[in-house]
Design brief:
single chain, alpha/beta, five-stranded antiparallel β-sheet, hydrolase, Glycoside hydrolase family 13 protein, GH
């Protein structure tokens, strides 16, 4: 059982770990105020142990006005009172580690909240002051400085510049409440290294780096030119010196980094994973891939190939706090993911999407490397339709109301079908409304059903941990190699070097299984003749 696994493993635990992402605000409410908190997480640690995960990744739990779901940090050394206290965070880290579960926290280095002490001081200071040098303040263009300093576009849409009453503008690649830091300033670098030490000393095992490729900017802040090399603010070479310094900090504590690095160039992506920089980075190619055998195989091959030269393990993820939930996305005509394509009212076949999500779970968990599991995926939760007047995500507002935003994948979890608000813990309505169907997905309903999504994930994680076929060989550690097996069109079939065989049928018809000695797990039953049905995956012992 997961509860009996050792509390310490090798220093390379992160290479094949299953890491569970917790969006604290929506995980579990311990004090009944409608917002998830650390007390709620602590109460659910037995559930996470039984699920069988190796680590927890917490999205930002810091003091924040929540203009962007906590990614607008006012103080990196304080827990937001809505979630708890620093002492409670320390207790949670220690309790989880005692159960064999490590903790990874989020760092948001590109920007801070406009309530951060540094930015408040900058607003109170005059143009050209040392306080403003910590950010990107500029005079505007035009006769009276009324035109933004350049033509960049915010990640959330619109201009990334906001003008102050004194006439100057400040840069924010995201929301106006998230002013960008000036990473050319030594105080910015020193502060973040100190923050890393602060949390490593409190027992965290790793740090996830938000928007890791955006920190450094061209000091001239020039207008954007399509195809310009280097880009004025994405993937600039100066970043690597920053992360080498960070790596020295992490190594002193045996800590690890995972970077959020969205880059189309695989060679440049791999630079972040060199032995003296980040340990791992998120694999967005796989996450955004449609449910189609050919592009999925290409995504897997490309991912393993780009990690192999630097000896870094791949990471696999189907969904996160920014992305349409898997069961919904796979039930649509367009099963890929693109922020620009999100619109209201997209038709969804949820039964089909759920069937595919079950198969995708076995696919991702069979691949060599680490897996990130977003809270609620193990329950098969669909994307929720949030009433327009309840949407809080700034992406919705800044799109002019076209983009439904990301709140649909952030709805508070259902724990107990017969309790108010599906057992989330609230005595008042949760911060986001739960759909009427939520009780049917509750953890207590699924817990006793081995055929449920929760039952599938629990058994899959048990096998991944205990089955010899998942053993990572030295060759696989260095190259991420797997062996593709002959298969019919539309079928993915591969063997791990430890002996596991995984087959995923995306062909539209039932197919024959390859030679094997035992069936370990299927995402759906085989047909009466022993064939693997469409949109089904199976694990075999070779």
């Amino acid at each position: 059982m997961a509860a009996n696994r050792p509390t310490e493993t090798t220093a390379s635990w992160w290479r094949d770990a299953v890491i569970y992402q917790i969006y604290v605000r929506s995980f579990a409410d311990g004090d009944g105020d409608g917002t998830g908190d650390l007390a709620g997480v602590r109460a659910r640690l037995p559930y996470l142990v039984e699920l069988g995960v190796d680590a927890l990744w917490f999205t930002p739990w810091y003091l924040s006005p929540l203009a962007d779901g906590g990614y607008d940090v006012a103080d990196y050394r304080a827990i937001d009172p809505a979630f708890g206290t620093l002492a409670e965070a320390e207790k949670l880290i220690a309790e989880a580690r005692g159960l064999g579960i490590r903790t990874i926290i989020d760092i948001v280095p590109n920007h801070v909240s406009d309530r951060h002490a540094w930015f408040r001081a900058a607003l109170a200071a005059a143009p050209g002051s040392p306080e403003r040098d910590l950010f990107h303040f500029r005079d505007g263009r035009g006769e009276h400085g009324e035109i933004p300093p350049n033509d960049w576009v915010s990640e959330f849409g619109g201009t990334p510049w906001t003008r102050l009453d004194d006439g100057q503008w400040y840069l924010h690649l995201f929301a106006p409440e998230q002013p960008d830091l000036n990473w050319a300033h030594p105080a910015v670098r020193q502060e973040h290294e100190d923050v890393l030490r602060f949390w490593f000393e409190r027992g965290v095992a790793g740090v996830r780096i938000d928007s890791a490729a955006l920190l450094a900017k061209d000091p001239g802040l020039p207008d954007f030119t399509e195809g310009a090399d280097p880009h004025p603010y994405v993937d600039r070479d100066e970043l690597h010196d920053i992360y080498r310094s960070w790596r020295a900090v992490a190594d002193a504590y045996d800590g690890i980094f995972v970077g959020e690095v969205w880059l189309p160039d695989s060679e440049r992506f791999a630079r972040y994973l060199r032995p003296d920089e980040l340990h791992t980075a998120f694999n967005f190619t796989f996450l955004s891939c449609p449910w189609d055998a050919a592009p999925l195989r290409s995504a897997i091959d490309d991912t393993l190939a780009e990690h192999a030269p630097v000896g870094a393990p791949a990471t696999w993820v189907l969904c996160n706090h920014d992305v349409t939930r898997t069961a919904t996305r796979y039930g649509r005509e367009d099963t890929g993911f693109d922020f620009a394509a999100k619109v209201f009212g997209t038709p969804t076949d949820l039964e089909l999407g759920t069937r595919r999500a079950r198969a995708a779970a076995l696919l991702s968990l069979a691949l060599p490397g680490a897996v990130y599991l977003y809270q609620g995926e193990e329950l098969g939760l669909p994307e929720a339709d949030i009433p327009r007047d309840r949407i809080q995500d700034p992406m919705h507002r800044r799109s002019g109301g076209v983009d439904p935003g990301r709140d649909g994948c952030r709805v508070p979890l259902p724990w107990a079908a017969g309790e108010p608000y599906a057992g989330f813990g609230s005595t008042s309505e949760p911060w986001l409304p739960q759909p009427a169907s939520w009780p049917s997905y509750a953890a207590d309903v699924q817990s006793g059903d081995p055929a449920s999504m929760l039952g599938l994930y629990r058994e899959a994680l048990r096998l991944r941990r205990d089955e010899p076929g998942f053993a990572t060989t030295p060759d696989e550690t260095s190259s991420g190699r797997l062996n593709w097996l002959p298969s019919a069109p539309g079928v993915l079939a591969f063997a791990r070097t430890g002996g596991l065989i995984c087959v995923v049928n995306l062909s539209g018809g039932a197919v024959t299984l390859p030679d094997h000695t035992e069936i370990l797990l299927t995402s759906a039953p085989l047909d009466p003749t022993g064939l693997l049905p469409a949109d089904t995956a199976v694990w075999l012992r070779g």
